[in-house]
Amino acid sequence: MGRVGLMERRDEELQAGDLALLDDLGALTRAEVPDYDVVRLLYETDSRLRVPPVIHSFVAGELREVDLAIQNPNPDKPEPNRAGLA
Prior knowledge:
The chain is α+β, with helices and mostly antiparallel strands.
């Protein structure tokens, strides 16, 4: 299987560990004030939670590819690292 993230998998491709991860993430984010640092650490350290640069989305009933890559309109000025990641 070439796909890594959970978003790219069909339900039947999810393993018990994948479902446990989603349950844990749900429990972490269910609180009135989620522990941002714990959620962020989980996102940064588990590739299954990464969103691919291109996703497929239904818009008005039509399947479309959506490129999520941030385009820097001013290439002479580096864009700030919004996610805090290298």
